[in-house]
Each structure stands twice: as C-alpha cells, then as structure tokens.
Amino acid sequence: MNHDEWLERAEIYVLGALDGEELNQFEAHLASHCPLCEDHLRESREALVQLPRSLAPVEPPRSVKAELLKRIAPEAKVPISDRSRFRWLWLGVGAGALAAGLLIVVSWNLIAARNQLRELQAQIAGLQTQVAQREELIRFLSDPQVRIVNLAGLPPSPGARGQLLWNPLSRAGLLLVTGLPPIPADNAYELWGIAGAEPVPAGVFVVNEGGLALFRLPALPESKSFDKFAVTLEPAGGVPQPTGSMVLLGSL
What we know:
Elements: H1 3-14, H2 20-31, H3 35-53, H4 62-72, H5 80-141, E1 147-153, E2 161-167, E3 172-178, E4 187-195, E5 198-205, E6 213-216, E7 228-235, E8 246-251
Antiparallel strand pairs: 1-2, 1-8, 2-3, 3-6, 4-5, 4-7, 7-8
Helix pairs in contact: 1-2, 1-3, 1-5, 3-5
C-alpha cells in the first residue's frame, strides 16, 4: 500500500470512522512509527480541535431543547440558572458536529483530488509515451537505408496486408498489419525473416479487434541476409520453426 492510501486512512481514523480489518492494518502501521503518518495524524487531530473554535455559536431550535429537557427529567422543572448551561452544552454539541462534518467533507475532497491527480499523471505518461514513439518512428523513416517490404495476404485472409519498414544495416524494423482476424489467447502471429530457404524467428504479435497491429522487430542476426518476410499463425509465445499456416508473405 502506498503512502497516499495510508494518509487517507489517517484522516478517517481521526474521525473514528475506521473499523474492521482496515482499522487493524492502520494501527499496525502506526506501531511501526512511520513519521509521515504520525505527522499527518497529529495535524488532522489539531485541525479537528481548531475547527469548532473558528465557528460562530449556533443556538439549537427551542423545540429541540424542550424535547431534550422532557426526556432528561419528564417531571422536573429546570431552574432558570441551569438554562445557560444547557444552552452552552447544545452550542458545543452543534459546533462539534458541524466541525466533524466539515472535516469529513475536506477529507473526501482531498481523496478525490489525489485520485484526479493520479489519473492526470497516468494520462500525461501515456501522452509522453505516444510522443516518444512518434518521434522514434519519424527518425526511423528519415533513415535512407530503410526499405519498405509489402506483405500480401494469403488464404484464409486474402484481404490482409502488411508493410515492413526494414533497415538491413541496423537490423531494425517496424511491421504494420491490417486485416488479420483476431485469434484466441493461446495463439499468436509470428513474423519470420527468410534467408534463402531458412526461416528465422522475428518475434510474435497479436492484432486488435479491428485486425490492426504495429510491431517492433527484435534484433535479428547480422549473419543472415533476408530476401523475404512472412507471417504464420502459431501457438502463443512463438516457435523456433514454422508449424502453422502462412497468412502474409512479401519480398525485398
């Protein structure tokens, strides 16, 4: 559990609303003398104490006071001198309840803000990854050594197409596939570099529901000179030699 979650539990713990296994876990964590949680717990308690003092006194309705007096002493009359004490008692109860309510609202707002911050950070990280991938693709395409290999679909997927961007010097490549059907989880598409009559494994990939895939080739052997590339349907994880049907084929 990260510290954001411990701090959220600290705010609930101060209000006395933490129970069950969460209460046991939090008290066990406090027993480890975590300085962050101890400081946050102390600050939350101080805030709870200070909130009633910052609020204007609130006098409860007369009907509420009358009903309370009836329940405390149905047959006794409350002396006038005692009314002020009841009044201040109710003022303290009302202010304390209002303070607790405000602290709950503030705590939940903090929790919501932290969750939104984590979501924004995840979105930013995703955008940064996309930008980095696009920049890398632009650099790759700018290399004059890059060759485009068109792969045509074979039965049973004659409408499928593939384009392999292949750099024979750096042995780097990117494969873009369209039109291949999605496959079960225990299967995968495997790319092969063919040197003469020898197929060399070049990685496995899957397509999305629309039949699309963008796949980066692993480093291929420098000792092999490829003149063709092909894609076959294989068991998940790939195989050292082709065993399934060929679905794409193209030549340099």
